[in-house]
Write a structure and sequence with these properties.
The chain is mostly helical. Among the domains are: 136 residues, no CATH class; 94 residues, no CATH class. Helix content is 34%, strand content 2%. The chain is built from 14 helices and 4 strands. The mean pLDDT is 78.
Length: 336
């Protein structure tokens, strides 16, 4: 009997310790989020008044409301949606002081006079002057807690580390579509990545300027566990999403170069054909010794090639990425 009670006590104690450890691991604010927003705004005397009060007081005549109502976040503001996830004060902080003294009657009177009624923005969170990390946290407090899985790597991504915030790319009040359209990504990305913009002026390049390839086809701007924000797990997997004929596997593969296409190719643009990092034959000669295709007198060793002089290795070794067919000599020479 004593042993049973002792065993039961140990089990209960173990469950209690396990529960306590679980609670310690759980991420939760010490204070409600609304209190943090008050502190960020620097006005602890402000109160939350609700979206309808904010919009009725000063934005009823503004096109911002029309665009926002049509957006995904705006639809969540509606009472009938049953999803009170987002409102004006979720981003801008408590708004009682911002609309103090503003009534519907004042708004209508100013509207008849052609005067735009505005909030006292100085009492709200000064979003424009917040550090990039704080700006992003305003968005991430909702977007990292829902089904937006591509944002779970944001904080460890190169953009976050380099003080890029969500609002640097997304214009929240610009219209109903908060996403950046694929055809607009190049212009947006190249504003910062000027070095990459130069590559897209090269003779051999990916057709980004023509709108046939987008930056987001290869890169995930919201963060990944891979280098260069690649969407796939490796360079080769990223490239072969489009260049499937180069993927293999082949009986004769091009050694360890099959793992990284950038050993030979420049991904954004190159002055050489086929995005090559160095022109042939010098690219191949970095790893391979040269060999003669002519005799000492200048005649071709192969009668069929008599009179020809080749400067490109791929004139003969055309299947340079890999092949399943052996060469005439029985070895993998990537000839056919």
């Amino acid at each position: 009997m004593k042993q049973s009670l002792l065993l039961a006590a140990i089990v209960i104690l173990g469950l209690g310790i396990l529960y306590a450890c679980t609670e310690l691991k759980r991420s939760k604010p010490i204070l409600p989020l609304s209190e943090y927003e008050r502190m960020i705004a620097g006005r602890l005397d402000a109160d939350y008044v609700g979206t309808e009060t904010c919009l009725a007081a000063c934005h009823a005549h503004d096109r911002i409301r029309a665009a926002f109502d049509a957006s995904t976040m705006g639809r969540q503001l509606r009472r009938e949606s049953g999803l009170p996830l987002v409102d004006c004060e979720s981003c801008h902080g408590p708004g009682s002081l911002a609309i103090k003294g503003i009534t519907r009657e004042l708004v209508e009177e100013n509207k008849r006079k052609g005067i735009k009624t505005e909030c006292n923005y100085e009492t709200l969170i000064d979003i424009k002057n917040l550090p990039a990390v704080a700006k992003s946290l305003i968005c991430l407090k909702c977007h990292s807690g829902n089904a937006t899985f591509n944002l779970h790597e944001w904080n460890s991504g190169v953009h976050a580390v380099n003080d890029v915030s969500c609002s640097d790319c997304h214009r929240i009040h610009a219209g109903p579509d908060l996403k950046v359209k694929p055809k607009e990504t190049a212009a947006m990305c190249l504003e910062c990545h000027q070095d990459i913009a130069a590559y897209f002026k090269m003779p051999s390049r990916h057709p980004v300027a023509e709108g046939k390839v987008y930056c987001t086809d290869c890169h995930n701007p919201h963060g990944t566990t891979t280098e260069k924000l690649l969407r796939a797990d490796s360079v080769k997997e990223t490239c072969t999403r489009c260049h499937g004929e180069k993927e293999g596997p082949y009986l004769y593969e091009h050694a360890d170069l099959t793992d990284d296409c950038t050993n030979c190719h420049m991904p954004h643009g190159s002055p050489n054909n086929n995005l090559l990092a160095v022109r042939e034959p010098f690219l191949c000669l970095q790893c391979h010794q040269s060999h003669r295709i002519n005799t000492a007198t200048g005649e071709s060793k192969t009668p069929a090639l008599k009179g020809f002089f080749f400067t490109r290795c791929t004139n003969c070794h055309s299947q340079i990425h890999g092949t399943d067919i052996p060469s005439p000599g029985g070895k993998g020479r990537f000839i056919q």
